[in-house]
Amino acid sequence: MNWKDKLNLLQCIASDLLIIHSHDLIHQDLHSGNILQDSLKSAYIADLGLSIAANIALKSKSDGIYGILPYIAPEVLKKQVYTKESDVYSFGIILWEILYGIPIPFEQKSELQFQLQVCKGYRPHIYENTAMCYSDLMMKCWNIEPEKRPTAKEIVDIFEEWQNNENILSELAESDKKLQIVKNESAHLYIDSHYKSSIISFNNSHKYQGN
């Protein structure tokens, strides 16, 4: 796919997220398995079974969460409530997967260890030669401070601008050529069960003490 088509797909996904958020809802289980395509030029967010009104989410409490661990925002792993900003973090992981064309690397050795790493700032590796505009957007979506992440509306506007910017399209295409070797060499163990939503328990005996 060329980058104009990729950006169109990303804009479709971001537009669906904007619609969800504009109804004051939070998806809560946004990952690539819940993105459906009916062609190479359109995509939709599916499976809103866990969606919840933002005002209800603020009052909810739980000893665990449901989802796929690498897509879950650090504040949620620290037992804070899901927010629209948590959905944006998950969207940032989808950005990574679309860029590199592979599932997010995740070997489920220890859920607690992974949670602690994410809360301390661990994020998926951004390879050298990645287009700066794209890596900047991913890192903004992954910001440790939720209020500093872009809104769904801001993301939609960014993709609309990029699709009509020949300099950006050229930068992304050039980056793709340089990353092709990385993509071919980045095969990793893929265990299907690791990429399905499941209950993730909080370890109440291990309180996160980070900055």
Automatic annotation (TrEMBL):
<dbReference type="InterPro" id="IPR051681">
    <property type="entry name" value="Ser/Thr_Kinases-Pseudokinases"/>
</dbReference>
<feature type="domain" description="Protein kinase">
    <location>
        <begin position="1"/>
        <end position="163"/>
    </location>
</feature>
<dbReference type="GO" id="GO:0004674">
    <property type="term" value="F:protein serine/threonine kinase activity"/>
</dbReference>
<keyword id="KW-0808">Transferase</keyword>
<protein>
    <submittedName>
        <fullName>Kinase-like domain-containing protein</fullName>
    </submittedName>
</protein>
<dbReference type="Pfam" id="PF07714">
    <property type="entry name" value="PK_Tyr_Ser-Thr"/>
</dbReference>
<dbReference type="GO" id="GO:0005524">
    <property type="term" value="F:ATP binding"/>
</dbReference>
<dbReference type="InterPro" id="IPR001245">
    <property type="entry name" value="Ser-Thr/Tyr_kinase_cat_dom"/>
</dbReference>
<dbReference type="InterPro" id="IPR011009">
    <property type="entry name" value="Kinase-like_dom_sf"/>
</dbReference>
<dbReference type="InterPro" id="IPR000719">
    <property type="entry name" value="Prot_kinase_dom"/>
</dbReference>
<keyword id="KW-0418">Kinase</keyword>
